[in-house]
């Protein structure tokens, strides 16, 4: 799609990408802290607006709530890791509701195996990296989100992969705390944002095919 058409027909996606890039570039600069926090939240908040506006389906509204809670978590985590984690925990619970109510009718044994692996391995690795029971509980919700996304009717190469990228970004957060290395911290935002972008666009694309009369943006 030409750039002009993207701006005209997907303005909230453009705003999301612009906010995300601005946050990544400016986050280490001498800049007003509240502005940086707002930019960080705006990246995913605009995806939430995109989801709400692009489809009238109930699933789109659930997705918008998932993304709104994630945007809240992005901002709160700059103030308190516990508050930010709580917002993301809530986001994962709503996401599981979204994916379970839109599960795939037929799945292969290998697909079920991947889902089980995501559910089990995710909290285990969270424990290994943090040695914290609260983080492990969060990891269980994170793994549940990814497992149900993988088993949902939404495209695995967008929504499923996006959920896996979300897991990887969180693992890098815990690795960064453990090793005090800036390398892992540098990778967190691009991986996380790409994951959320793939989830948002993958779900909405599917819903709009099912409901072609959905309200345009």
Automatic annotation (TrEMBL):
Pfam families: YhhN (PF07947). It comes from the Bacteria. One of its GO terms (cellular component) is membrane. The keyword DNA repair does not apply. GO terms for molecular function: hydrolase activity. The chain crosses the membrane at residues 12-30, 36-52, 59-77, 83-101, 113-130, 159-177, 183-204. It is a multi-pass membrane protein. InterPro entries: TMEM86B-like. Keywords: Membrane, Transmembrane, Transmembrane helix. It is found in: Membrane. The keyword Transmembrane helix applies. Belongs to the TMEM86 family. This is Lysoplasmalogenase. It comes from Pontixanthobacter gangjinensis. The lineage of its organism: Bacteria, Pseudomonadati, Pseudomonadota, Alphaproteobacteria, Sphingomonadales.
